[in-house]
Amino acid sequence: MSEYSINKGVGRSVEYKGLKAQYLFIFAIGLLSLFVLFVIMYVAGVPQWFCIGFAAVSASALVWLTFRLNSKFGQYGLMKLGAVRYRPRYIINRLRITRLIKTCRKQHR
């Protein structure tokens, strides 16, 4: 009978060098967009050393920010942060207090 090794990573989120889930995609898309921006600037005639300096500073800032967000908010932190916008800050109830009390009494009977 053959033996099969069990993949213990099934169901886990994607992780690379500590970056988890959406941060990994933000990191990859950010670096790709910086590369495209670098090529566009270089082809447009911007001086070579300015392009290299801009790309290096921007890539360093992207790496730092992505790892900082990953450590601060965790795996699902950005989704939780985005969900706060959809939660109402307060609920407005325009019914009179006496009507609220009456409806509560009817429900308990």
Structure description:
The protein has four helices and two strands; from the N terminus they run E-E-H-H-H-H. It has helices at 22-44, 48-73, 77-83, 97-108; strands at 15-16, 19-20. It has a two-stranded antiparallel ribbon. Helix 1 packs antiparallel against helix 2.
Layout of helices and strands, plus pairs?
Layout: E1 15-16, E2 19-20, H1 22-44, H2 48-73, H3 77-83, H4 97-108
Antiparallel strand pairs: 1-2
N-to-C order of helices and strands: EEHHHH
Oligomer: single chain
Distance between the termini: 68 Å
Main sheet attributes: strand count, strand direction, barrel closure: 2 strands, antiparallel
Q: Could you list the spans in which at least 5 consecutive residues all have pLDDT below 50?
A: none
The radius of gyration over CA amounts to 26 Å
Strand order of the largest sheet: 1-2
Number of helices: 4
